[in-house]
Write a structure and sequence with these properties.
Blueprint lengths: L13 E5 L5 E5 H5 L3 E6 L6 H13 L1 H6 L2 E7 L4 H10 L3
EC number: 1.11.1.25
Organism: Linum tenue
GO biological process, one term: cell redox homeostasis
Length: 94
């Protein structure tokens, strides 16, 4: 698959996540991004030094700058299962 370039359509896919009621949900990337500007950050893995120390902190630090540019949501995805990502969000803000 070729890299996504500016102006390309985002390929669809299904992600698993826990909602605000702590229920496991399946959601399509298209439904998350529909009608809004989003940033999708792919990290190598939850709790890894690269994720925790290099990738995620920069997006957290610049979240307000991104929002000022019209970004509605910053979405972090990883190869980990949703249970690991849920734990990571509590400790590392993945």
């Amino acid at each position: 698959m070729a890299p996504i370039a500016a102006g390309d359509s985002l390929p669809d896919g299904t992600l698993a996540h826990f909602d605000e009621n702590d229920q496991l949900q399946q959601v399509s990337i298209h439904s998350l991004a529909k009608g809004k500007k989003v940033v999708i950050v792919g990290v190598p893995g939850a709790f890894t030094p690269t994720c925790s120390l290099k990738h995620v902190p920069g997006f957290i630090e610049r979240a307000e700058d991104l929002r000022a540019k019209g970004v509605a949501e910053i979405i972090t995805i990883s190869v980990n299962d949703p249970f690991v990502m849920k734990a990571c969000a509590k400790f590392v803000v993945c």
